[in-house]
Automatic annotation (TrEMBL):
Similarity comment text for this entry: Belongs to the DNA polymerase type-Y family.
Function field: Poorly processive, error-prone DNA polymerase involved in untargeted mutagenesis. Copies undamaged DNA at stalled replication forks, which arise in vivo from mismatched or misaligned primer ends. These misaligned primers can be extended by PolIV. Exhibits no 3'-5' exonuclease (proofreading) activity. May be involved in translesional synthesis, in conjunction with the beta clamp from PolIII.
Top-level EC class: transferase
Taxonomic path: Bacteria, Bacillati, Bacillota, Bacilli, Bacillales
Cofactor: Mg(2+)
Main location: cytoplasm
Source species: Pueribacillus theae
UniProt-annotated location(s): Cytoplasm
GO cellular component, one term: cytosol
Cofactor note: Binds 2 magnesium ions per subunit.
Lineage: superkingdom: Bacteria
Protein name per the record: DNA polymerase IV
Length: 366
């Protein structure tokens, strides 16, 4: 069994609701429900811990939530806001490793076996990530640390909110024994019922079933249950496929003829593209300008530069040169676009300071 990896699962606490409570102090310590409004056919996306006390949970129809807790504050989902916070936390993860596999806006696996700071202990990295998330977003996250995805994920949900649970290899089997059957990977409502009917309530019970029995009842999934009950999970942390290019186009309010008139638009495009690159922790080596003319014909020109950049001014200067080199045949322009390819990860310039670490911790923590 592979116990050499160090995997962290990070999950923000009551994410959408916490963002709303952060941004509106009047909502703090109140039951807050983000998602569909009470008299709509919507459902609860996230609710605050105060609302959970009333038995409200995600995916519950909002009008049922309203019946259970009429005094709750209902707020419509504001994805734009949550996505911005999501980008902040993903950037923090990428400071430590590029082996980041997001599961949702507020949740990801990280493989930190090897990491950008050569920190041996995944526990220290998890602490540092939680600290940085709080510092930058004023929100709390819970982390689970172990040698595989299954255990890391269960561990992160173990002590919420603001939790940190570490399951080192030598404690895995005893940890698994107490995991409720419903929390095993691949167990939904129906499967849970099936297990309960078989008298299987937790990991300890699950381990008593033979692989043959599990395969017979649950087909291929049975093999996973068999392995997970024994602390075996070899699934890799797989980052989303790398983005190959990144850019933005703007259709002009009116067709333009003079280059001077196009330059402010070009500058705006360069700033947007630069911002996107920085948000994704990327730099580019190739800048492409696209020009669409009034008759919908178009031209593109590209330049490969010597050093990677994500600087708006540099991108703008190159785009300006490309624009001047375009053969226009006196046509007016209706659309301009800048895109970038040959992307590379941005070097971490922010130095990490790990005040929380002392040598003893380094040596003893998983
Ligand atoms: Mg969450």
């Amino acid at each position: 069994m592979d116990q050499s990896r160090k995997i962290i699962h990070i999950d923000m606490d009551a994410f959408f609701a916490s963002v709303e409570q952060r941004d509106n102090p009047a909502l703090r310590s109140k039951p807050v429900i983000v998602g569909g409004l009470p008299n709509s056919r919507g459902v609860v996306a996230t609710c605050s811990y105060e609302a959970r006390k009333f038995g409200i949970h995600s995916a519950m129809p909002s009008n049922i939530a309203f019946k259970r807790c009429p005094q709750a504050v209902f707020i419509r989902t504001d994805m734009k806001k949550y996505k911005a916070v999501s980008r902040q936390i993903m950037q923090i993860f990428h400071m430590f490793t590029d082996l980041v596999e997001p599961l949702a806006l507020d949740e990801a696996y990280l493989d930190v076996t090897e990491n950008k700071f050569n920190i041996k202990s995944a526990t220290i990295i998890a602490k540092e990530i939680k600290k940085r998330i709080y510092k930058e977003t004023k929100l709390t996250a819970s982390a689970g640390v172990s040698y595989n995805k299954f255990l890391a994920k269960v561990a992160s949900g173990y002590k919420k909110p603001d939790g940190l649970t570490v399951v080192p290899p030598e404690q895995a089997l005893s940890f698994i024994e107490q995991i409720p059957i419903g929390e095993f990977f691949g167990v939904g409502k129906v499967t849970k019922e099936k297990f309960l009917n078989m008298g299987i309530e937790n990991g300890k019970d699950l381990r008593k079933l033979s692989e043959e029995t599990l395969l017979r009842v649950f087909k291929e999934r049975g093999r996973l249950f068999y392995q997970h009950a024994r602390g075996i999970d070899n699934r890799r942390v797989t980052p989303n496929r790398k983005r190959k290019s990144l850019g933005r186009e703007i259709t002009l309010k009116e067709n333009l003829y003079l280059i001077e008139d196009m330059l402010p638009v070009l500058q705006q495009l360069a700033e947007i593209v630069s911002e996107k690159l920085i948000q994704e922790n990327k730099m580019t080596k190739c800048i492409i300008l696209k020009v669409k003319f009034h008759d919908f014909s178009q031209q593109t020109k590209r330049i490969t530069i010597e050093q990677h950049t994500n600087d708006a001014m540099t991108i703008y200067r190159h785009a300006e040169q490309l624009l001047k080199a375009i053969q226009r045949n006196k046509k007016s322009v209706r659309l301009l676009g800048i895109s970038t390819t040959e992307l590379a990860p941005m070097r971490t310039t922010r130095e990490a300071s790990f005040e929380t670490i002392n040598m003893y911790e380094q040596l003893t923590l998983f």
